[in-house]
Amino acid sequence: MNVEKLFAQKCVAQNLHAASKKQLFQEMAELASKCEDVSGETVNVRDIVAAVAERERLGSTGVGYGVAIPHARLEGIGKVRAIFARLETPLEYDSIDDRPVDLVVLLLAPANASSLHLKALAQVSRLLRREDLRDRLRSAPNSEALHLLLTEDRTINAA
Fold first, then answer.
1. What is the pLDDT of residue 33?
2. Is the pLDDT of residue 43 over 60?
3. What sign does the CA torsion over 17, 56, 135, 125 have?
4. Which of 3, 40, 57, 107 is least surrounded by Cβ atoms within 10 Å, i.e. has the fewest?
5. How far apart are CA 6 and CA 3, in angstroms?
């Protein structure tokens, strides 16, 4: 699975406003509901919020460096999908480094796809571990530029 295939254009937002984790999950779920392989009558915003909040109760998904990767597996999801948002204002998130979060990837996967879910989680984590990419995401002018940064072919530069 290529990380580039996880992010659809409609699943990327800039300057998302959220004053709390609960509101963040709601806003991200609403964005997810507009994405292919997530939208539909079998998965609704409430189901996404509940699944992500339940996972968050197990431990914070704030991975450090201003990044959070909330995630869940749900019935009705067609394939693993990542939803990205750059927040308008950094949000306190109980991250492992106690820094507020401004880059968020909501990762959703089919209920029966645990190995694909974990692989996608590792790939997104590796991607956002790169300081240069985080800096470029924070300064990107619009959602199209964000999408391009998230989906660029990194094999071209891998030598």
1. 87
2. yes
3. negative
4. 57
5. 5
Buried b (16+ CB within 10 A) or exposed e, 4-28: eebbbebbbbbebebeebeebbbbb
Residues catalogued as catalytic: 71
DSSP letter at 140 equals -
pLDDT tens digits along 93-145: 999 999 999 999 999 999 999 899 999 999 999 999 999 999 999 999 999 99
Best CATH choice for the domain 3-151 from the list 3.40.1390.30, 1.25.40.10, 3.40.930.10, 3.30.420.40: 3.40.930.10
C-alpha closest to that of 124 among 52, 75, 68: 68
pLDDT band at 38 (very low <50, low <70, confident <90, very high): low
The torsion angle over the Cα atoms of residues 105, 3, 7 and 75, rounded to 10 degrees, is -70
CA dihedral 82, 15, 67, 57 (to 10 degrees): -70
Q: Is 79 helix (H, G, I), strand (E, B) or coil?
A: coil
Distance CA 73, CA 131 (A): 28
The predicted model gives 47-64 an average pLDDT of: 96
